[in-house]
Amino acid sequence: MARPDGRTPNELRPVTITRKWLRHAEGSALVEFGDTRVLCAATVEDGVPRWRRGTGEGWVTAEYAMLPRSTDTRGARESVKGKIGGRTHEISRLIGRSLRAVIDFKAMGEHTITLDCDVLQADGGTRTAAITGAYVALVDAVKYLRKHRNLKRDPLTGSVSAVSVGIVQGQSRLDLNYLEDSVAQTDMNVVVTGDGQFIEVQGTAEGAPFDRSSLDGLLDLAVDGCVRLTEIQKKALVG
Amino acid sequence: MARPDGRTPNELRPVTITRKWLRHAEGSALVEFGDTRVLCAATVEDGVPRWRRGTGEGWVTAEYAMLPRSTDTRGARESVKGKIGGRTHEISRLIGRSLRAVIDFKAMGEHTITLDCDVLQADGGTRTAAITGAYVALVDAVKYLRKHRNLKRDPLTGSVSAVSVGIVQGQSRLDLNYLEDSVAQTDMNVVVTGDGQFIEVQGTAEGAPFDRSSLDGLLDLAVDGCVRLTEIQKKALVG
Amino acid sequence: MARPDGRTPNELRPVTITRKWLRHAEGSALVEFGDTRVLCAATVEDGVPRWRRGTGEGWVTAEYAMLPRSTDTRGARESVKGKIGGRTHEISRLIGRSLRAVIDFKAMGEHTITLDCDVLQADGGTRTAAITGAYVALVDAVKYLRKHRNLKRDPLTGSVSAVSVGIVQGQSRLDLNYLEDSVAQTDMNVVVTGDGQFIEVQGTAEGAPFDRSSLDGLLDLAVDGCVRLTEIQKKALVG
Amino acid sequence: MARPDGRTPNELRPVTITRKWLRHAEGSALVEFGDTRVLCAATVEDGVPRWRRGTGEGWVTAEYAMLPRSTDTRGARESVKGKIGGRTHEISRLIGRSLRAVIDFKAMGEHTITLDCDVLQADGGTRTAAITGAYVALVDAVKYLRKHRNLKRDPLTGSVSAVSVGIVQGQSRLDLNYLEDSVAQTDMNVVVTGDGQFIEVQGTAEGAPFDRSSLDGLLDLAVDGCVRLTEIQKKALVG
Amino acid sequence: MARPDGRTPNELRPVTITRKWLRHAEGSALVEFGDTRVLCAATVEDGVPRWRRGTGEGWVTAEYAMLPRSTDTRGARESVKGKIGGRTHEISRLIGRSLRAVIDFKAMGEHTITLDCDVLQADGGTRTAAITGAYVALVDAVKYLRKHRNLKRDPLTGSVSAVSVGIVQGQSRLDLNYLEDSVAQTDMNVVVTGDGQFIEVQGTAEGAPFDRSSLDGLLDLAVDGCVRLTEIQKKALVG
Amino acid sequence: MARPDGRTPNELRPVTITRKWLRHAEGSALVEFGDTRVLCAATVEDGVPRWRRGTGEGWVTAEYAMLPRSTDTRGARESVKGKIGGRTHEISRLIGRSLRAVIDFKAMGEHTITLDCDVLQADGGTRTAAITGAYVALVDAVKYLRKHRNLKRDPLTGSVSAVSVGIVQGQSRLDLNYLEDSVAQTDMNVVVTGDGQFIEVQGTAEGAPFDRSSLDGLLDLAVDGCVRLTEIQKKALVG
């Protein structure tokens, strides 16, 4: 019943966020959840996608991708295959939605912030690490935007972090690594605001369907983990 | 506070399932949730995808698509654009996962069942209608497989249905139509087995983040709706 | 020498056209030639393709596609393959040309009507059924256009229907079903106006080349069939 | 009423066929119909497409393409656009079907002949020139196959040539050049065997629909033109 | 040590340049280096690519491609594969860069010249033959531009030719044919102006790395060959 | 005439190579040339590409890519565009060729090593940094291969490093950064073995053509820089 890396069920892996890892990007962070390493870069651009032009509102979007050898066996590049897989699309959309939940588009004006989340090394929980790191990059990009485009009020309405939880060998656990994730019966990704409200709840029965009380236990675990991630984000953003 | 079509908050739209709508497919159903119409076709093929060969286990997969004029304004065909969008991928994956949750792959042997869910007309809830209808097509495809490939035991381990729920104007509602869906603050798709357990829970804050008690209320509503959908599936499968 | 479904050589299959099958489209028809079922949707859009802008003339175009399990064995989706096959292109072009032959582009103004012809079930003659049904959808779309865009005169200059003919076991036959089509020595698709003139004549020797008298016999059969299809279209358009 | 290049209505443009224009190909011909120039190369390969394996029968297929500056204004390369247009597909399929009509697949054994027809310069009638030239390349490829694969009998069962005809300013004309083609009311491509039977008849009303007697007149003109093309092919194949 | 076609180490193959081979193109040349045959067409278009608009400067670009049966065994069309290979891209870019080196963009005004270099038959050295022939087509296109767009001064600042050199069986040789190219230890493509300066030097160790004195010897050979190619270009451009 | 970062003309930027930066890859290195940062991962796989099977020889290949925000302005992902650009192809091919020059394929047996070179941050010289770093990753991958596949002799026959040189403001300079690269008149990438022989020499006149003595000076500078890079590689590989 012990976890492979000796953690208690409600323990996060060591989490570090290295802010401003990139020189060119308006915001950036290298986020690590144990061996999972995601490079998040925020780009500020003037203008918005065609369907949003003339509304006076901004846009935030995200693109997620994995380097070919971020995983244990090499995966073919999506650029070489000529198309993006379903999983990549799904995660990119999740990250974008999660960050948009703490943005006031009117305050942004017609500007776009793109979050590129590239997985350099994968060991489970890449999408939740990406959301957690992308928020830090987003904060710096928003600062840049306020300063250089003279925004009247702050487009940021809150903070956001995310974590995975799951049931492994009948036990509810926080922040699964790859080994745990691959044998989990139920797997859930939860995106939470800094004040503890839900942005996304995505639970999937990998093996057997799960009941209401399991669902409740996992949600408790996730909300608790996100409280700690919010603290780590705050520290990274100081200075 | 009244719903656009006069329903009570916990009322489904009229749901009909026309089984065996297609002549060639091993299983098929035209499912209607109000004006939403999805044609579900199940195809039985010998063999499994490459990565599964030699395991002795079967596979179930799904492809979701919308006809160009199923919606209010015409959408470009994905075949013409030359690539499948993120939303399409995401829904295809959800349908496949949902149906696999009630399948015993070992009992199937190395056969594949593909569920094609084509939206002929869209008015909200197309993915949950697709899951509900695809289950009916799947049942007939499994019957065909058992009979023509001489399976020893039944690969079906349960039934599955799905429904959307959401918070509209502060009110929790079951089975949103397009009008409601487009203004919902929170939107949730819930996939439930015939005995009331969860296969998937996907909740998204479209506007403001939502709290735990809202989440609990939506889950109750969804489970209740799926009890009624299970009944409708059973009736469709009689005879 | 008897036909597989007992028809006489110059007999059509039962043909039904269900007008306004779709709620959103400006014109629509579900057309059935025996077991062949094609859903035709007409979409009216303001503006014309780039190469036609500024001419003051409208445009009519068509897209044909088959659902994966419309046929006896499942075909891969063209959206998944990422490209449209030659046959699909060829038929889309044929449908568009056929309908444009009865349109006065100047009377349309710079508007576009797109006919989506999706084969729900295939049993031979899908392209000719599509043309016959698309005409009905087109009529309603043109009505919509006249009313909502205030056209001065009617863009429709005639009616159009189409049928396949072929030589099977040495016998010239009207409206081949799939079984006949697959063994035909010669196969011909003929598109005819309501007053009996030709829009398209496409004859192909599948096995042995054919002589002039065979060609003449097939053309007679086709023209005769189209007279009856024109009647059926008229009835569908009443009311 | 005079033709732009002074020809009589039933006169072909100067036609030349330069056999063995390429060094590597098993058969090749540079065919010219006036200013229309098509390079036809026949490639012999062992084996057949997957769907034909094990049948003991061969296959003949064709690919048609235009060089970007074969036309008056430069067209984008289909390789650069990443997809093949409908017209290209349609013509490739027509060429393939036309040549297969004079092939005995059983006599070929499991070998494939591919005809590449690349338009170096276009001035109307490229598809019919391609068929006429490809036949010459095919003859040499079949000879190669007979010699090097020891075939027992000749896979060639006849010869094939093709020509366009059309109605321009009310007059039926043979072998339209680009100028005539672009203003033709009716346009027809006819593929004929050496003994005067039809392989393909494709007539299209570009402007007004056409009646039966026009159709009859065009067919007479085309058959007559193909008699002369057959003579030119025979001369090219001597020596 | 003798070369396969009996040439001396510093001897070019017979080189011919047939100017104005095409009727539509503003400039064209069929260039032959022995059995290597490349058709070069220059197209003049008004306007420049988006990134260059408003600069008042012109642009010159190139596209290289091989016909499927230009080589000993048939290669799949890149249009059919749906993407352009690395080698094609690389050579297109090389040709474009080489020609741009002798162009004064300001003198061109906002016009674009596109060089299409299509290999009709390949026997080694196709990229250097393409550059050499494309220059001739470019000269005529520039003349057209000067005349029809009233340019004040000549955009051409020099001439350009190119040749391959390599080390085969320890011997430095000029203008390798395919047989030599495929066994060369070192292969170098050199692009030289009419007054003997370098535009591109691309040397690659195919087998063993090469030393400085080998490099020097190859450069001498190449510069010498380009002097003779410049003469041939001049002769082709007379009249 | 001073360089933007104060270096002397023949001075490299600070170069660091962090070996084994990745946990999963059989070899890896994060290489930095000033602000240019490239992550190189070497993957060992059994088997070789189809065209090489049965030869008993191994294969080494490379893929180069840039993260979207590695550059000053964000570039679109090639996976999103659905195709790989010419520059990417060209550099991937260059890296592969460069590393293959120091490999004895027979000694490798039928195994493949793939070098993924992903640019995390770009400031000029990414392709030469990639080659220099990829060699370090390759060494560890070859060690892994020797140990786990029991190779009889060492497949590595030498070492390889690379550097860019160019003429900026009339001055020949070593290891250009982005600022210098963008204004260079001549730009050259040179790939050199550990014992000072050439693998690749790619010189391009960006503005004016260059003469022989400039070329000679640049080659001297490059060879000298590679001597120092070889030392840095050796140090990184110790321990």
TrEMBL record, chains A, B, C, D, E, F:
Biological-process GO terms, alphabetical: rRNA 3'-end processing; rRNA catabolic process; tRNA processing
Molecular function per GO: 3'-5'-RNA exonuclease activity; tRNA binding; tRNA nucleotidyltransferase activity
NCBIfam families (alphabetical): RNasePH
EC numbers, comma separated: 2.7.7.56
Catalytic activity from the UniProt record: tRNA(n+1) + phosphate = tRNA(n) + a ribonucleoside 5'-diphosphate
Broad class of enzyme this protein falls into: transferase
Organism: Spinactinospora alkalitolerans
Annotated Gene3D superfamilies: GHMP Kinase, N-terminal domain
HAMAP family according to UniProt: RNase_PH (MF_00564)
Function: Phosphorolytic 3'-5' exoribonuclease that plays an important role in tRNA 3'-end maturation. Removes nucleotide residues following the 3'-CCA terminus of tRNAs; can also add nucleotides to the ends of RNA molecules by using nucleoside diphosphates as substrates, but this may not be physiologically important. Probably plays a role in initiation of 16S rRNA degradation (leading to ribosome degradation) during starvation.
Similarity annotation: Belongs to the RNase PH family.
Pfam families per the UniProt record, alphabetical: RNase_PH, RNase_PH_C
Subunit structure: Homohexameric ring arranged as a trimer of dimers.
Residues where phosphate binds: 87, 125-127
Record keywords: Nucleotidyltransferase, RNA-binding, rRNA processing, Transferase, tRNA processing, tRNA-binding
UniProt KW NADP keyword: no
Name assigned to this protein: Ribonuclease PH
Domain Exoribonuclease phosphorolytic: 11-141, 159-224
